Amino acid sequence: MWFRTLVLVLVGIVVFLSCSNNSTEHSADGESVIHEADNFEKGKVLTRTVCKADTTQSYALYLPANYSSKEKYPVIYAFDPHASGLEPVSRYERLAEKYNYIIVGSNNSKNGTSWEESQMIAGKLFADVSTRLSIDLQRVYLIGFSGGARVANTLTIFNGGINSVICCGAASPVATITNPRNNYCYLGIAGNEDFNYIEMKRYDMVGLAGHNVKHSLITFNGKHEWPDQSIMDEGFWWFELNEMRKDSSKKDSKRIEEHTSPLMKELETYYTNKNTIEAYFLSRKIINFYDGLIDLTRCYEILKTVQNSKEVDAFLNAEQQAWKDEERLKQEYVNAIQTKDLKWWKQDIAALNQKIKTGKDKEKVLVYKRVRSFLSLVAYMQTSNALNQRVYDAAEHFSEVYVLVDPDNSESHYLKASVAAIKGDVKEANVSLQKAINSGFTDGARLQGDAVFNTFKNTAEFNELLKKIPAK
């Protein structure tokens, strides 16, 4: 198949470029020797490092404070859906320091990019970092969020030089894979209000079933977003554990004990108090994380007992039904956005919000929240597409729905302002832009450069709005 001909970018490209880059030479045993020619600042987030071979490509970078070209460092390449390498690097710089990792965030990879272009972007990123920094090619990791997670997962599946991947908020690969590799580790992370939550659960439970891939899933209370440091800390620890499994000489029993002791106590408490569901999920997590590193006999005993219980069986069946209900609701809303008028939407969204506010069944409330989050995405896409196609009446309708569904999202107000500006309604455009700013809009450069606002950019009202946008 075509993908069998792919060159391992972490090996082939690195070897090619290292021959022509005077910042790298090779020792007698063939190991790359990295010099300090670039003199990157250590212990500080660097927003934009330009690739030497292609100045249109750049990345955010964090080097541990003790970085030295005389040592080899694990490296994490991060992919954000909006080409903001700074987002993951700045979020996780403290974790990179804690675990002594290099972290790199692509400023070019983004949603809407073809798989072929994504490979090119990744190849140039990997090559530039590998020839300018001292990395351990046996410890190359990828992380990604949303569309960036899909790219990261696909790159990992195709590329034998990548050790492990963490996918946040999405997982399904962006390219067709008929013969995926099995010698890597996968960790999924998803908020329980994420519209891709079901996808993440199914990928972990079904998509990876039958494959010899070490995998697990972490869920947290949150939406479709990069997880915070406390959650991603478990991801970095997952990288460490997989390295210990691969190389027993690196096993750190003391650190493992510090992590597992409270987990085992928590598990015993759940089991003793007959918190069956909690015991089921925690025992599975401990096994997934620490298989091959500690004695898991007690975990397996508890798991065997609880997984056959009526409580767990009922919970899993109810979860499957909730997934079906959620998918049905999503499809109904996809159809409705094309057919229902604004009056219907006002009534329906009010009813949906009321169910979320007063619902007693926690799992159903989460379903409604995920559906609402999904609907926000649908309304955004419909509004954007209508604007791009210059179907302005449709764009106006979709933007109204978008604001109803997600009134706290600055993008919903920004797009509504765009429609108003195109239609010549300066007053409404100003009002909506003010609401966008109140909701957290900070991209002044985008507003200044947006041609739809050209007709009133020189007005006092517009200039006042620009002054209200907080500096990034």
Task: Give an overview of the whole structure.
- This protein has 17 helices and ten strands.
- 55% of the residues lie in helices and 12% in strands.
- The chain has 472 residues and is α/β, with parallel strands linked by helices.
- The chain folds into three domains: 2-250, Alpha/Beta hydrolase fold, catalytic domain (Rossmann fold); 252-308, no CATH class; 329-468, Serine Threonine Protein Phosphatase 5, Tetratricopeptide repeat (Alpha Horseshoe), CATH 1.25.40.
- It is globular, with a radius of gyration of 25 Å.
- The two termini are 46 Å apart.
Strand order of the largest sheet: 3-4-6-5-7-8-9-10
Q: Give the CATH H-level superfamily of the largest domain.
A: Alpha/Beta hydrolase fold, catalytic domain
CATH architecture of the largest domain: 3-Layer(aba) Sandwich
Compute the CA-based radius of gyration.
25 Å
| Count of discrete domains | 3
What about the largest sheet?
8 strands, mixed
The amount of beta strand, in percent, is 5-15%
Q: Outline, from the CA principal axes?
A: globular
N/C terminus separation: 46 Å
| Percentage of residues in helical conformation | 55-70%
Determine the structural class based on helices, strands and strand pairing. Answer: alpha/beta
Q: Give the integer mean of the pLDDT values.
A: 90
Strand tally: 10
The ordered H/E elements are HEEEEEHEHEHEEHEHHHHHHHHHHHH
The number of helical segments is: 17
CATH fold title of the largest domain: Rossmann fold
What is the class of the largest domain in the CATH system? Alpha Beta
Low-confidence stretches: 1-35
